[in-house]
């Protein structure tokens, strides 16, 4: 299925840019699987990969923020925690209901909108701060 790529900005920290591109690619693969004729096990694997990637990325970002003494660390981390809790709840719902359309709509709309907004605000500011501190 052809979709417009997510329009997210590049930030001042290269590992974040790389991880953001990987996240966008994983999201696309999951959306393609949800729209296609694949077994639920394939969707399970892609969903787990997206959640694991997100958790690792958040942990790396949080470590960077702590090391740089980023003042609004708690605010940024709280959003990470909220997103991971939402992802976990969606995995539980998927595992119990197997509703492809509900999962697809969430991944396409809510996750896409959150990602664009998060990278374009919190991550952009965080990366700029870390770069100014000479931590990258």
The total of helices stands at 4
Task: Summarize the helix and strand pattern as letters.
Answer: HHHH
Mean pLDDT: 95
Structural class: mainly alpha
In the CATH hierarchy, what is the superfamily?
A: Hemerythrin-like
Low-confidence stretches: none
Per the principal axes of the C-alpha atoms, what is the gross shape?
elongated
Report the top-level CATH class: Mainly Alpha
Helix content bin = over 70%
Termini separation = 37 Å
Tell me which oligomeric state these chains represent.
single chain
- How large is the radius of gyration? 16 Å
User: What is the CATH architecture assignment?
Assistant: Up-down Bundle
Q: How many structural units, i.e. domains?
A: 1
The CATH topology comes to Four Helix Bundle (Hemerythrin (Met), subunit A)
User: Can you count the beta strands?
Assistant: 0
How much of the sequence lies in strands comes to under 5%
Instruction: Please describe the biggest sheet, giving its number of strands, its sense, and whether it closes into a barrel.
Output: none
Give structural notes.
The protein has 136 residues and is mainly alpha-helical. It has one domain: Up-down Bundle (Four Helix Bundle (Hemerythrin (Met), subunit A)), CATH 1.20.120.50. It contains 4 helices and no strands. It has helices at 14-35, 40-68, 73-97, 100-132. Helix 1 runs antiparallel to helix 2 (40-68), helix 1 packs antiparallel against helix 4 and helix 2 packs antiparallel against helix 3 (73-97). The longest helix has 33 residues, at 100-132. The model has no long low-confidence stretch (mean pLDDT 95).
